[in-house]
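Entry 0007
Protein: LexA repressor
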Amino acid sequence: MEALTPHQRRVLEALQRFAAEGHAPSLDELAETLGLRSRGSLHKHIRALEAAGYVKPAQGRHRGIRLADDVLDSPVDEGTTGPGSWGSGTLPLLGRIAAGQPIEALANPEPVEVPPALRARGECYVLEVKGDSMQDAGILDGDWVVIESRSHARNGEIVVTLIDGEEATLKRIEQTPEQVLLHAANPAYPPLTLVPEQLQIQGVLVGLMRRYSA
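Output (structure tokens):
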């Protein structure tokens, strides 16, 4: 299956569960199931899944969202479908994130043991950090960050964001009605200044793990 963002994986998993019940949900039903406030961002995920061949093209405004026939045959709990089906002691390592580049998704997400204290109440996943842009916040190259899947964040939180639908980065967020600033924790990287429409929050940092070489 083609690499998907964490949010696209969540949408695909929900659609597969609806399909298993013989139901094609509306956009509103899907948003309610996923706990999403923004119908616009959900519609973007559906369009991306449609372009990738996972979802059938829409046929009228009031028709339900239907999976492609070959996707219907795939089990919901396969590794490509998202974090919801993982065991209570593990989270999926979905990929690697580096400043200014798309998330390098893993074809088969690996299970990672994550202590309960490093998780949040919501759905979580793990990313491996590449680069030094957050080093002064104690986030180093090779670290594993635990991310709570969310589409909103408070000022000062460290977030995974998608910029212009293409580039993903891990930065500290500062939001106003007119603009969004993404701050690195390394003086070598200046803040990124964006308008809210350019940015999609994909999750918030809730934990960090590090492996030391012997």
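Curator remark: The chain has a mean pLDDT of 81. The beta strands are 90-98, 104-113, 124-130, 144-148, 158-163, 167-175, 180-183, 192-194, 199-209.
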